[in-house]
Design brief:
about 240 residues; alpha/beta; Undecaprenyl pyrophosphate synthetase; six-stranded parallel sheet; about 45% helix; binds farnesyl diphosphate
């Protein structure tokens, strides 16, 4: 029996995850919030590793939003340290495992050394295609659409594009996610029923899963259960059942 038959439908090719609940996980244990983020970073490794066996070719992770700058400076700095450490520690393994890494989100506010690490990992993995791992840092969907709109407007102003030639594809090609398929499944941990500005354009036809478990407790096994549940859903993209 094929995997599709066993689970009722194809695996989602592209899963996007809002990794929520690190802070509450730590606070409920009397630990500093950063301890939750550290444990969360360990989970990232486990979930990334599980993707190829589940038939997932694209994984997108929401690591830091445009709103997260409002957190205390110590937490923001701690998260930035975690991103640096993740790239330095996991970079070689991601290269070896055939992952192609991309970062989405506005880079200008990030420190130059972090931007250099990000660009370096993107360059080292550009030839890979076993798993497309996209990490959203300083990402906000409205910000992404705003930046894309400005670039389309510049193209029109400079005479490279006529307004009547602007299509949905034009917009998609100017987003940070240009070239990536839309997510099939968007998963949020920790019980919050919000999308918090994650991939608003790309999520037009995505399925959603909200799970109660906090991200630091979210195991590869729980992830596999969600992915299999996706296979049992019927996606109609606005049409009627066939
Ligand atoms: C949300 O939990 C999580 C974040 C803002 C950070 C996500 C970052 C990681 C999992 C660490 C490293 C990531 C990578 C890609 C290496 P929260 O702090 O909002 O939790 P709360 O809602 O319980 O306060």
């Amino acid at each position: 029996m094929s995997d599709d038959q066993m689970h009722g439908g194809p695996a989602p090719a592209h899963v996007a995850i809002i990794m929520d609940g690190n802070g509450r996980w730590a606070e409920s244990r009397g630990l500093p919030r950063l301890a939750g983020h550290r444990r969360g970073a360990d989970r990232v490794h486990e979930i990334v590793e599980s993707c190829p066996d589940l038939g997932i070719t694209h994984l997108t992770l929401f690591a830091f939003s445009t709103e997260n700058w409002k957190r205390p400076a110590s937490e923001v700095q701690g998260l930035m340290r975690l991103f640096r450490r993740y790239i330095k520690k996991e970079g070689a393994r991601l290269v070896a495992e055939g992952a192609r890494v991309r970062f989405i989100g506005g880079r200008d506010p990030l420190d130059a050394d972090l931007r250099a690490l990000m660009a370096g990992l993107e360059a080292r993995t550009v030839e890979n295609d076993r798993l497309h791992l996209t990490v959203a840092i300083n990402y906000g969907g409205r910000d992404e659409i705003l930046r894309a709109t400005r670039r389309v407007a510049e193209a029109v102003r400079d005479g490279r594009l006529r307004p009547e030639d602007v299509t949905q594809d034009t917009i998609a090609e100017h987003l940070d996610t240009a070239g990536l398929p839309d997510p099939d499944l968007i998963l949020r941990t920790s019980g919050e029923l919000r999308v918090s500005g994650f991939l608003p354009w790309q999520a037009a036809y995505s399925e959603f899963s909200f799970v109660e478990t906090r991200w630091p407790d979210f195991t590869a096994e729980m992830f596999a259960t969600q992915v299999r549940g996706f296979g049992r859903r019927e996606r109609r993209y606005g049409a009627i059942a066939g």
